[in-house]
Write a structure and sequence with these properties.
Elements: E1 4-8, H1 16-30, H2 41-46, E2 50-57, E3 62-69, E4 75-83, H3 92-105, E5 111-116, H4 121-129, E6 133-143, E7 146-154
Parallel strand pairs: 4-5
Antiparallel strand pairs: 1-2, 2-3, 3-4, 5-7, 6-7
Length: 158
């Protein structure tokens, strides 16, 4: 079994440009052009109150990443979650999502939200397994003929 490590992408890390390049390649491969952040990835990463975690396997390969933000002290968003095809169904997505949730929790947010295509069953199952609930259906979220569920995870505020 491959060893894996979840890493926070830092602005000054020595392998930052290669990591971002690998993430952009994965982004282009997985997401349709109009959903991809590939062209604006660096801009997204330098935004205040945003973070990116990636999982690296023992051979230095990028297996997946999660991007998140906390626009206010009340809520956070999971903006992207992607795992390379050959690493899917091995727990990488779950580990990344749990790590991002934990990072958001340290900010004392009350809610984390995300959007997901209802047809992406593995993603839907993962989010529900970790406690996310469907809030509403957003018509035409991805494109005129592709909707999204807005999902949320609330934390006890006691």
């Amino acid at each position: 079994m491959a060893t894996r490590k979840i890493v926070q992408l830092e602005g000054n890390s020595s392998n930052r440009s290669k990591t971002v390049e690998d993430i952009v390649k994965l982004e282009r491969k997985i997401f349709p052009k109009h959903e991809s952040l590939a062209r604006s990835f660096d801009e997204e990463l330098i935004k205040k109150n945003s973070g990116l975690l990636y999982v690296e396997v023992d051979n230095g390969q990028l297996a997946g990443y999660v991007m998140y933000s906390w626009p206010s002290s009340l809520y956070a968003s999971i903006t992207k979650l992607a795992v390379k095809e050959n690493y899917r169904r091995q727990g990488y997505g779950k580990e990344l999502l749990e790590a991002a949730i934990q990072k958001c929790r340290t900010r004392n947010v009350q809610r984390i939200s995300l959007h997901v295509d209802p047809l992406r069953t593995p993603a839907m199952n993962l989010y529900q397994k970790l406690g996310f609930k469907v809030d509403s259906l957003v018509k035409g979220y991805y494109s005129p003929d592709r909707d999204a569920y807005r999902m949320y995870l609330d934390f006890d505020t006691e």
